[in-house]
């Protein structure tokens, strides 16, 4: 009948479902076997292929959003780890009957890096202790003397890491470097003090006199070394990255505590050991003989000019490299090839749209959606899809890309379709008219922070070119920015560290010439590397 626009019967009503966005469509697939026409329709659906289904229809993807990412609540560290572990358990439980399952994403990257750091610390710290004990025992050939520096190392480490635990700071990629730094600083000061004591005993001084002489002889030098090291760490307190500020503060305090422990603990240990410690004989060991021969070779007139020219050549070779330094962090590629996270990430990159995302917040010009704005968003989305690094784009109106253009030509019709278009995710996650904000999500494959930030610049520039106010955000973007900020902040703080350290040495030595001379062994190694 010509007057009938549509017909709805009772059986039809049972198939309809009222949602916040209007009437939801019936299930897309009802049969067990897909027809050729349905398979073609699925392949033509750009919002599904790549994100939820691979192009060969053999891999399905599920995007999981934790509750804390869509609400004001936040996960604690323990809750986040428990949630990720539960997700992995569920995913692994479905890997049966010939199916394979993979799980990846930024939350898993952060979680696995934390786990790897703790595991490495549990292995590396005892290993370093064994190596240091072997070296000190080889130097002194007495277990009592070898244990004294190791006691300073253990106490310095316990004090500093105990402070970290007491104030409740969780270890991260940066603060996990504290133990090796403290171990090196504390063991070197203890060895200097022991060597000064043994040299005094070899010179004929009594036991107590030798301890007093050693503390007075190298106490100032070691104190100045500790002070300049602390100032070097404290120069990084200007960093905007909280993890860097935490590391530098704790490392500086740890160096100070290591100095106090060494110059109080070592004399007490030497007094307690008393006559049980034998001192060096006049005969030199292999290390002393090698160092003495090296010193004679360096001080030889004919070798001095050779050293100068070789050093100058190395500096000249290193200078061009300064202008070729690049910055980039790629956590996935640093993992072993068989690491579960890397395997999962690379599989998803190959078959789907990747695990990384660049989130965009687009400002709405008015509270009411305007057709011109919707068209700009659609044009912006088409440009993003053309970028080689972009694998998929999501927004409230991506479904409009596959609607016939003539249906969208009319402004009133476009506004109605854009308002009632069913979405795969809740509307409040993508569009907030009251806050004048629209969310867009760009999916990418795993890449280094330098390439990710280059993509972000391209996206920002295109948005500005078509008049869209865009704010870049998302976990991947923030982590990439933090990585770059960390590198450039450290480079800028290097100048402050040089001023503080060399200024302190010049004042302590009371000579700018000696201060400049002391700068040579401090500045040349970083420059060459």
UniProtKB/TrEMBL annotation:
SUPFAM superfamilies recorded: Multidrug efflux transporter AcrB transmembrane domain
Give the UniProt entry's GO cellular component terms.
plasma membrane
Note the superkingdom of the native organism: Bacteria
Chain segments annotated as transmembrane: 123-140, 147-171, 177-198, 218-238, 250-273, 306-323, 491-509
Q: Where in the cell is it found?
A: Cell membrane
Q: What is the membrane topology listed in the Swiss-Prot or TrEMBL record? A: Multi-pass membrane protein
List residues of the SSD domain: 145-272
Kindly give the InterPro entries that the UniProt entry links to this protein: MMPL_dom (IPR004869), Mycobact_MmpL (IPR050545), SSD (IPR000731)
Q: Which UniProt keywords apply?
A: Cell membrane, Membrane, Transmembrane, Transmembrane helix
One Pfam family linked to the record: MMPL
Give the protein's recorded name. SSD domain-containing protein
Q: Which organism is it from?
A: Candidatus Entotheonella gemina
């Amino acid at each position: 009948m010509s007057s009938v626009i549509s017909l709805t019967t009772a059986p039809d009503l049972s198939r309809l479902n009222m949602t916040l966005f209007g009437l939801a469509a019936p299930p897309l697939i009802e049969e067990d076997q897909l027809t050729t026409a349905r398979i073609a329709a699925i392949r033509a659906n750009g919002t599904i292929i790549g994100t939820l289904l691979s192009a060969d229809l053999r891999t399905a993807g599920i995007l999981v959003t934790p509750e804390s990412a869509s609400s004001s609540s936040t996960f604690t560290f323990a809750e986040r780890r428990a949630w990720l572990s539960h997700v992995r358990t569920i995913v692994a439980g479905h890997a049966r009957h010939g199916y394979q399952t993979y799980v990846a994403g930024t939350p898993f990257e952060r979680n696995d890096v934390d786990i790897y750091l703790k595991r490495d610390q549990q292995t590396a710290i005892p290993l370093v202790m064994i190596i240091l004990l072997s070296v000190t025992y080889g130097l002194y050939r007495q277990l009592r003397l070898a244990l004294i520096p190791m006691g300073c190392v253990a106490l310095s480490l316990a004090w500093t890491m105990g402070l970290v635990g007491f104030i409740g700071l969780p270890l991260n990629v940066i603060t996990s470097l504290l133990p090796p730094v403290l171990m090196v600083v504390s063991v070197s000061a203890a060895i200097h003090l022991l060597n000064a004591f043994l040299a005094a005993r070899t010179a004929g001084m009594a036991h107590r006199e030798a301890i007093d002489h050693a503390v007075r002889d190298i106490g100032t030098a070691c104190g100045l070394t500790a002070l300049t090291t602390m100032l070097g760490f404290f120069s990084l307190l200007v960093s905007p990255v909280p993890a860097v500020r935490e590391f530098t503060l704790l490392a500086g305090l740890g160096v100070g505590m290591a100095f106090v422990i060494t110059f109080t603990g070592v004399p007490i240990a030497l007094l307690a050991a008393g006559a049980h410690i034998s001192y060096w004989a006049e005969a030199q060991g292999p290390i002393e003989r090698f160092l003495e021969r090296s010193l004679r070779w360096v001080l030889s007139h004919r070798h001095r000019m050779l050293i100068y020219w070789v050093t100058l050549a190395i500096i000249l070779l290193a200078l061009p490299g300064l202008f070729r330094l690049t910055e980039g962090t790629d956590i996935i590629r640093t993992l072993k090839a068989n690491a579960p996270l890397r395997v999962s990430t690379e599989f998803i990159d190959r078959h789907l749209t990747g695990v990384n995302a660049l989130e965009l917040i687009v400002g709405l010009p008015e509270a009411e959606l305007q057709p011109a704005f919707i068209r700009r968003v659609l044009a912006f989305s088409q440009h993003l899809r053309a970028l080689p690094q972009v694998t998929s784009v999501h927004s409230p109106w991506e479904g409009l890309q596959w609607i016939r253009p003539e249906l969208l030509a009319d402004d009133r019709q476009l506004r109605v379709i854009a308002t009632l278009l069913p979405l795969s995710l809740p509307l409040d996650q993508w569009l907030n008219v009251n806050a004048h904000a629209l969310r867009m999500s760009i999916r990418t494959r795993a890449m280094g922070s330098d390439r990710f930030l280059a993509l972000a610049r391209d996206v920002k520039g295109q948005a500005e070119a078509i008049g869209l106010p865009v704010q870049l955000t998302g976990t991947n973007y923030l982590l990439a920015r933090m990585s770059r900020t960390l590198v450039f902040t450290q480079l800028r703080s290097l100048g402050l560290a040089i001023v503080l350290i060399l200024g302190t040495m010049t004042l302590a030595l009371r000579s700018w010439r000696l201060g400049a001379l002391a700068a040579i062994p401090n500045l040349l190694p970083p420059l060459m590397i």
